[in-house]
Design goal:
single chain, 237 residues, alpha/beta, Rossmann fold, 41% helix
Length: 237
């Protein structure tokens, strides 16, 4: 059963985000190259684009939007848009203001052309940036593509700079692929998030993390401290 997160969203500026440097080795998803090739085919062939959307994106995006519960007009950052930014296009048509980035300059150019051809130039901005360096503090929600690389560092950067009350939505490989030795990232926000999940196409999983407010975290710490104090009292008695 999919539940909606009820939250209020503002309308922050969509100006350029400051960069932050990152280091360390990158580990690509086993489907990184395949997804890039498929998106470029989708740019060239409209029929393939529709079939690819129906197979991999339609159910997944519907579930993610339902879980997120964002109101129209919310500002969204999509990291890893690729040559055919399915996620950005879908979200824009749902009434969100979307900025999408990709680290591949040729993919960015193709995505910009595609956005214009779909008449969405006033709703979607495509820019060239490594996801490890994007500041997500100006957005109500951040969507991460399944095959972004390096996934661990992008998740950590997006979560660290996300504002309180903001949402982080990311995707995981199907469990049956993980059992066959495929690596996947398991990110839960370090105890500062409320997490909801939904299964999507082919058994993949979408996760929506809502960043708790400072007041919520203080209340939680207070409850934990009270519980600990009561346990000590009971232990003495």
């Amino acid at each position: 059963m999919i539940r909606k997160n009820q939250q209020r969203t503002g309308a922050p500026s969509l100006g350029p985000a400051p960069e932050r440097q990152s280091a360390g080795p990158a580990r690509k998803s086993p489907f990184f190259s395949l997804s890039q090739f498929s998106e470029r085919l989708a740019v060239r062939f409209a029929l393939f684009a529709r079939l690819y959307f129906d197979l991999f994106y339609r159910k997944m995006l519907a579930n993610e939007v339902d879980l997120a519960g964002l109101k129209p007009g919310a500002s969204v950052l999509h990291i890893g848009g690729g040559a055919y930014p399915y996620t950005a296009i879908y979200l824009a048509r749902k009434g969100y203001r979307v900025r999408a980035c990709d680290c591949n300059s040729s993919a960015v150019e193709m995505a910009r052309d595609l956005v214009q051809k779909n008449g969405l130039g006033d709703r979607i901005t495509i820019f060239h940036r490594n996801g490890c360096t994007v500041d997500s503090s100006n957005y109500d929600a951040v969507w991460l593509s399944l095959n972004i690389c390096p996934k661990e560092r992008v998740l950590e950067q997006s979560w660290a700079s996300l504002k309180e009350g903001g949402l982080l939505i990311y995707r995981k490989l199907p469990a049956w692929l993980v059992q066959f030795g495929r690596c996947e990232v398991d990110f839960s926000g370090g105890g500062e998030a409320r997490v909801e999940k939904a299964l999507t196409g082919l058994g993949a999983e979408s996760l929506v993390l809502k960043k708790d407010s400072a007041a919520r975290r203080r209340a939680k710490r207070s409850r934990d401290e009270n519980c600990a104090a009561e346990e000590k009292i009971w232990a003495v008695n």
